Amino acid sequence: MKKLIVAALLVVGLSTFAQVENQEKEGKEPMEKMSPGERAEKALKRMTKELKLTDAQQKQLKVIIAEQEAKRADVNFKPNKEDRLAINEKISKILTPEQNSTWDKIQEERKEKMKEKMKEKREERKNKKEEKAEKTEDK
């Protein structure tokens, strides 16, 4: 009996350790746990890396991103197409033509990833509904 308990504790401990280690490797902190300032800083770092921003561009974008993150922190804020277009327009005025083309490609890739994730989620929900229907039919 003692061996069974020790084995169970070992399995739980190892799986917990593996999950924590996996999160650290990814370097991803859930967005809801980050403050608006932290999210803005992370977004600016990502853009600096992807677009090779100058110091002047970083300062200009920092203001825009901080404004957007402050809006997003409001519980009642619902982003709409006009907001996104306005932000993208402000960003494109700061970037060089080469950076703008890179930014457009990045945005398009993100859009495609989101479409894929949404498609997967829809399929998962559909499969769960089908499984529930099968279980209720079996009874």
The SSE order reads HHHHH
By secondary-structure content and strand pairing, the structural class works out as mainly alpha
User: Low-confidence spans: pLDDT under 50, at least 5 residues?
Assistant: none
Q: Estimate the helix proportion, in percent.
A: over 70%
Please provide a written account of the structure.
This protein is mainly α. The chain is built from five helices and no strands. It has helices at residues 2-26, 36-51, 55-73, 81-94, 97-138. The radius of gyration is 22 Å and the shape is extended. The model has no long low-confidence stretch (mean pLDDT 82).
Overview features:
single chain; 139 residues; mainly alpha; 83% helix; extended
Write the layout of secondary structure elements.
Layout: H1 2-26, H2 36-51, H3 55-73, H4 81-94, H5 97-138
Helix pairs in contact: 2-3, 3-4
Structure, briefly:
With 139 residues, the protein is mainly alpha-helical. The chain has helices spanning 2-26, 36-51, 55-73, 81-94, 97-138.
